[in-house]
Amino acid sequence: MARPQTLIGTPRLYYRHRADNTARKAGNISEWITRFGAVYDFMIVLDADSLMSGQTIVRLVHAIETNPTAGLVQTLPMVVNARSLFSRVQQFAGRLYGPMIAAGVAWWHGSEGNYWGHNAIIRVKAFAEAAALPQLRGRKPLGGHILSHDFAEAALMRRAGWGIYMLPTLGGSYEEVPPSLLDFAARDRRWCQGNLQHLAVVPARGLHWVSRLHFMVGIGAYLTAPLWLLFLLLGMLISLQARFVRPEYFPKGFSLFPTWPAQDPVLAIWVFVATMGLLLLPKLLSLVLVWMRRSERREFGGALRASAGVIAEIIVSALMAPVMMIFQSIAVVEILAGRDSGWQTQRRDDGTVERRELYRKYGFPTLCGVAMAASAYAVSRPFCSGCRRSSSGCCSPFP
After folding, report:
1. What is the per-residue pLDDT across 161-170, written as a single tens digit (0 to 9) for each?
2. What DSSP letter does each residue of 108-165 carry, written as one string?
3. Cα–Cα 20 to 30 A to 391, which of 12, 71, 354, 372?
4. Per-domain residue ranges for the chain?
5. Distance of alpha carbon 268 from alpha carbon 235, whole angstroms
6. Quick check: 29 pLDDT over 60?
7. Within a 10 A sphere around the Cβ of 49, how many other Cβ atoms?
8. Which residues sit opposite 341 in a β-bridge?
9. Mean pLDDT for the chain?
10. Do residues 369 and 393 touch, judged by C-beta distance below 8 A?
């Protein structure tokens, strides 16, 4: 601290600890604004695992000062300090794909952007006047304090006329991520509950339609998991039926002409192509941007290493997706059944998981993968090969 002392004197640092941690993080901010907010124009919110450079803070202050209608300016935090394979893959993906995606989001959101809960500067007056969160009716998990408070706070500020902006090209903003898939799933469970709570916020009066869209996208991100699982189960059952149950070509009694099973392989191919394009095209475009910029190519170790990294990330993501599908499907069912996730403390170690915890958490996804592989093999070997990604993805975390 020697250099800051010579520049501005002794820094004024305060540590606050609430004995009653009501509403968790949102409660911390609300309590600070109530007690101290009147003497500050702006505040910068950071998580325990996030940070910003001094230059970035100065530029954020300048950005919000020069725009009197701005209530919040969000940065794009880059993942740092990743040590495990899981977190390293996320760090690579965020660094390569994040800037292009964030630039597109900032362009079409405009002043109706979103807030991610940290690494953002907020106008205290706007937040204090507009962003007081309601306590939802009913019992937890869908009632009570809103866990995903950031989306709701941004929507309420926008409803009051304040702009919510994003600066995707501003560097110097960083965060850490969970070290393992289990830690990520534990945090994702809380996010799932918080996003489903937004079902009660979407109909609120006066919200901008883009704010409602933010809510719906967040809700859909978790509801698609059980829909995907249901799609796989139905597809497997239909395939087993076609293999072991004699088809009925005359279901309506006497008829001169049979009713053939309806199949459209051309449409199926187009659905597959569209799905792959939706998943892979943003990644490929981000890679092309790295190829075109010499400085970024150098940061990634050259075009060849960047390309190899993208291939590795796609493989890891493809293996991880079925496991997260099952975890998120379980989360949705638990929430609808009334089970609260609470707010667990995130681990900060290297992500090593005890064997007992490994068996307990990954046992069910692995059984699902084995059952899927066995059912597909019972249909045919080519069908089993086609289901390899989903079945192997469910089993891959175990070893």
Report:
1. 999 999 999 9
2. HHTTB----SSSEEEEHHHHHHH-PPPPBSSSTTTSBS-SSHHHHHHHHHHHTT-EEE
3. 354
4. 24-245+264-347, 353-399
5. 13
6. yes
7. 17
8. none
9. 90
10. yes
What does each C-alpha distance from 371 to 252, 344, 378 come to in angstroms? 35, 32, 11
Q: Which two tokens stand for residue 339?
A: 């089970």
What is the domain class of 24-245+264-347 according to CATH?
alpha beta
Please give the model's pTM, rounded to 2 decimal places. 0.90
Cα 169 off chain centre by? 20
Pairing mode, strands 50-52 and 173-175: antiparallel
Concatenate the DSSP letters of all residues of 166-220 into one string.
EETT---EEE---SSHHHHHHHHHHHHHHHHHGGGTTT-TT--HHHHHHHHHHHH
- Binned at pLDDT 50, 70 and 90, residue 151 comes out as very high
Condensed to tens digits (0 to 9), the pLDDT of residues 186-231 reads: 999 999 999 999 999 999 999 999 999 999 999 999 999 999 999 9
